[in-house]
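Write out a record, focusing on structure:
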Amino acid sequence: MVFIYNIGIRLYSLLIAFASLFNDKAKMLHQGRMQVFSVLKNADLSGEVIWVHAASLGEFEQGRPIIEAIKEKAPRTKVVLTFFSPSGYEVRKNYDLADVVCYLPADTSRNAKRFIGAINPSKVYFIKYEFWHHFLKELKKADVPTFGVSMIFRKEQSFFTWYGSWFQKMLTAFRFIYIQDDKSAALLESIGVSNYKVIGDTRFDRVKAIAAMSKDFPLVDRFVNGSSKVIVAGSTWEPDEDILIDYIQNENKDVKLIIAPHEIHEGHIKQIESKLNVLYHKYTSGNILADNCRVLIVDTIGMLSSIYKYGQVAYIGGGFGKGIHNTLEAATYGMPVFFGPKHKKFKEAVDLIEVGGGISISAQSEFKQEIEKLWADNELLASSSKAAFDYVQSMCGATEIIVKETL
């Protein structure tokens, strides 16, 4: 099995190297991996070092509360933050609480020994889904306390298959595994793993903190202008935008829409503009705003997590593609959250539906029907909003437990 795994790792590295010739994302990953050890050679990693590894940006947000707690409790501790994906590294490569930010090298035995030897970590935190055989093997061999953070397990994973015994050995490298739900606990128990605790997801602590520090935007405030029917749509893709634009233009003239697309390049923004026949305003176009403007296009980054507070209902994009984006950033403000059908792999979305704070739709007609119910019934809107808010509040506290037990 190790032989097959090693072949797979090397083939993937070769594929990335080849793809880097014509794909920007692959080029970033390939070049970033090539630079890891020179970055470490030039870094000051004297004293205690803690390593936090996240696959991408979403996992970083789960690990971020841990990093903040480390720096608050022991400011002189050095933090090495690694990413697997360029989408995480490129956004957070200048994260100020990490002393080193770099890519995770390919998971070979040589790289694992060299990397761990270079940073000499006193503790390691792997976030959510990351399981790398050679890195975990070397950490176990060096007796470095290694913790799984906000991990969630599904029966489809290799650990729980008929050939899963080799993969299960990776879990023995963890001193302790902090998991999100009881389903994950049952799966771990089924393969004899007992060093876990169900504490929820550290992302809840993060979104609660973000909401507490939310920014005000005068232009957005003027756009809303006391309206009681505002939809804030975040991280949308074309299928989401078609549903929202059709609704705004053809169904309810009292509703305003704030839309923050996932892609904000000029071509996509122009595509949205071409579909609108109501008065709209691009955020970057300036501060002069018409009184009868009904759509505000947020064509810049860094605002979305604060903008949700301006709405009564949220729509989270991605549910007609690979999967939905962050529902918690909206739910923490206490608002019903709409999203597309591809949400079943996202525990928080499933939970929000169960408690009455989330609504999944699969077509324009369904969106119209469900949102009109909310506008027509203030009590239903209030109860759905409270359900979303209470859910987020009830799930907070995972960071405090991890910090108390591991630092």
The longest strand covers residues 230-236. The two ends are 35 Å apart (CA to CA). Residues 351 and 358 are 8 Å apart (CA to CA). The longest helix spans residues 2-19.
